[in-house]
Input
Amino acid sequence: MPMENDRLVDDPRGLIFIGVLLGLWWLVTSGLGLFPNFILPSPEAVWHSAIKLSFPEQPQGIMMGYGESLWGDIMDSTLRLFGAFAISAGIGIPLGVLMGMVPMVGAALDPLLQGFRPIPPIAWTPLAILWFGIGLQSVIFIIFLGAFWPILINTIAGVREVRPLLIRAGRCLGASRSQIFARIMIPAAMPFIFTGVRSGVTVGWWMIVPAEMIASQSGLGFLIMRARANGQMPDVITGMIAIALVGYCLHLGLQYLGRLRLFRGA
Amino acid sequence: MTQAATIPDLTGGTESRSAFARRVLPGIVSAGLFFAAWWTVTDGLELFSPIILPSPIEVGRSAISLATGSLFNGGLYQANLFGHALLSLRRVFIGWLFAVGMAIPLGLLMGAVPTFWRYTGLSVRIFSQVPPIAFMPLAIVWFGLGELPILFIIFIGTFWTMLNNVIAGVNAVPPILLRAARSQGASGSQIFVRVMLPAMFPYLFVGLRVSFGIAWVSIVAAELVASSSGLGYLIMHAMNLLASGDVIVGMGTIAIIGIAFDHFFRVVERKVCRWKMTD
Output
């Protein structure tokens, strides 16, 4: 990203442009009627669909075959992301620290890392379905892999990049080994670890859509795929907007976290 | 993990053992152990059914049967491994070249005219948050099933990355170089070709490499969801046939092609941007 900024809207002119795009969208659909609703739904149709999906009068599950409401699908997808991310970080960070600090472990596991990492997480989908069946576990497994590699690689790099001077200084000043580890190594590696966490979450959110399209019966990816099968294009657009907005919120949240002192390093 | 012996290694202290014993040997040993363990739990002890985890030997057999046979017709998958790989690569190249061709001029415009970016920046940031595959339902409705929706996914998935890198490249051109060229009487087109483009090269090449990587992942996802050819289709169809060996061969092929292109772009990058001091 060029020009990083953690405010929701850094320049009001950006909103003007979004207004222009919405205007154009209205013009080519409702205004001039160039596109019918089943090709490109009008903004009003999407608005009605968003209201309908957010506050369903009866459970959508009976009517349409997708989740109970838009919020339910958003929750499903986000909880899967966070659950899988927690597993990735829980395994990736300790393993990365171990591989970075102990050269023997690093050298021993490196070929496995180099061999498995190039496999795109989404390419694991067929195996995941064979192993876990269609459902939560498969989706979690795919997102786990998506987030795991960036976290592991960055943690290893972070621990290896700690300046030796810092460690020698700590030792000269009489720090114990556990103090050197907890007070020097980890804080110094933190910016790298955070970079890994950040791209882990981004990749995870990216992966959730195809994972839910293929191997799930709920969530935003499932919603848009099922809505298309039902010919409900306004619901497809609503789902896509929800995916974009949740993704953008995650992006802003991570940018905010990145400014905390904890993650900026010593 | 806080063992004493490990910390001196990190401080770059004297090493008595050779690099071979420290780096290469553990790697060979661990790769060997990995395959031995894989064989033991499958063929050796038969802990897993071949559908869940086929043995290394079985995967080797799958690789041979997939790699032989006619390139584009016949066989269980209507094409052999190379045929599917070529189909995937063709899609990736078409979609990616379209994206690059549009992102470079647009990125130059957005980077060179800051006002333009101030208006469009927010929209670009929000649009680029949509995972490419989320456009699949829309693309199918717009273009029907077949090649076009897949090309569209590749295009939309790589366009934003390339655009962001071009804009960053334009912003990274040191103004002093532009002023120096101008004060020495360079024309506008000379400044662009001789000063701006070379200064942007590192960003352009990172954009090309990263966006190609995204294209390669997106093609697999798109072919898993909606295609009847290509490597993504191959592994999905193999799953339906419960041919796990074929699934693993397909995954390996996807990985190898991905690394090969990543490596290729890095080599070109290093050649073209040799003057670049920092990473």
Observations:
- Residues 1-35 of chain A form one domain.
- The CA atoms of residues 4 and 32 of chain A lie 38 Å apart.
